[in-house]
Amino acid sequence: MLQDINIFYVSISLVPALFNAAIFCYIFYVYPSTRETNIFLLFLVSLIVWQIQDTLMRLNIDYETACHISRSLDFGWMFIGALILHFLCYYTNHHVIKNRSFLIIIYGVSALLYICYLANLDEVILSYDKNWGYITGIRPGSYDLLSRAWVAILALASLGILVVEYFNKRNSPIMRKQILVLFLGAFLPVLQGAVTQLYFSAVGMTDIPVTSTTLTCFSFASVIALRKFKLFDVSSSIASGKIVKQIENGVMALSPDDKIVYLNPSACKLFGVDRHDGDLGTLKKFFETESAYKNFLKDLRFQLGKRKMESCSAQLISQDGKLLQILFTASVFDYGMGKKGTLVIFNDITELKEANHVIQMVNKRYDFITRASEEAVWEWSFEDKTIYWNENYEGLFGHKAPFGKSSYQHWIDQLHPEDKDRVLDKMNEHISKKLETRWEEKYRFRKSDGTYANVFDKGFIIYDEHGEAVRMVGTMQDLSKIKVYIDKIERQNQEFTEITWMQSHEVRAPLSRLMGMVNYIKEYGYDEEADKCFLNEIAASCDELDRVVHRIIDRVQKLRN
């Protein structure tokens, strides 16, 4: 009866069952659903069923009830070997896991042996121990011993997988630590189970039903590996399906013969296709020409053949006829049946290409304008006190500006001592008052050869969203040549003024005398003896007028030269 239950022997199977149930709940609710975690959860279910079976068999139940429990719950231990091997092969990514026949064999044989066990209508042989309760024995002429041998073979194969993968240099150090912890947790229960459940039964000895309890060592080792070494590192696969559907990048999967087998919603929207279509066809329909499609496949193969991923660009056309520019990277994935598919991740850079074209055109225009204007364009960053110059700066003033920039102090050092205070005061006043009008100033700026150039500097202040001045942009114009032209024009104007004065005064005097003597002769006549003095005056006036005319001609020739 229940009062005669041995609490200790019941607890050594019940407590591990509760412990494994807690592990099951933790993984089930905390970790996302992946194939790896799901296989491990099935292993825990199988182990919990086995431990519950052992617990029930120790509750002083009657023989008939014990037989019913044995037949109903024996599937727990019969499938646990296949689940352990499946989990470890998948976890270590052992090559056998990629072969479907491997899974068919381990689960198929286990299921077949369980069916044979149920199909045998002979009564289950149970022996009773006052401590262990009812213990299942081997029926003569049945497959019971073969079932235990099969589970032992799968468990020993699991240990072999762990040993092989531990010494596999391709595995990372952290993974090898995980494998070592799992091996230490599985070694004792597998060895103990092979001895007590297989060997003892084979030689006619009574089984010691503690294998389900010792298997908790493996689940405990899994918890250690889980907490300390991230046994289930699902960071790369958390809700991967949802992520692929929600990312803005286009994702496309190609079969080994380059047919489209998957497009995520972003790719479908970009290409204008319905992802629910049964046959997505090939990428060829998204290219204008056959040669463009072949060039894309060539770039695709080139990427797959290189270890380092590099992006390539291609021009496609959507189903509505819109030209698309994409930037893509490609990698291989396991397509199944020993074949490799191609995973293509791409970005739509059509607008970026168009914007880049506009930027190039703007830059060209800017370059042409700065060349034509022969002005030094500058940008002063207030934060790092750096001034960025265009190439005209060195051409105009001879100063080297490595990578097109110089310090703010460099500009100050080139100001003429007589102009420095005035220029800096005006600029600081402009900045402090946060004026949006143009700052401009004329001053002398020292060139690399030590001479000073007369410059006209002007610029605007740029403010951030908080109204703080962050930078200033402008242009500096060398007025030296212009000043030379102005001086020349002023000298020419002076010459013209003097010529005008000569025309209005020096030419006018002899000319007036000549006109007066001519009028006198016309009015009173000419007497050669009496008016000989008039001829001398006329000759003198003509000589004077000739000299003035020559002087004017010399001045004009000087201006012309």
From TrEMBL:
It catalyses: ATP + protein L-histidine = ADP + protein N-phospho-L-histidine. Its EC number is 2.7.13.3. InterPro entries: HisK_dim/P_dom, HisK_dim/P_sf, HisKA_7TM, PAC, PAS, PAS-assoc_C, PAS-like_dom_sf, PAS_fold_3. Residues 439-491 form the PAC domain. The keyword Cytoplasm does not apply. Gene3D superfamilies: 1.10.287.130, PAS domain. Residues 242-277 form the PAS domain. The chain crosses the membrane at residues 6-30, 37-53, 73-90, 102-120, 149-167, 179-202. The keyword Cell membrane does not apply. GO terms for molecular function: phosphorelay sensor kinase activity. Keywords: Kinase, Membrane, Phosphoprotein, Transferase, Transmembrane, Transmembrane helix. This is histidine kinase. It comes from Echinicola soli.
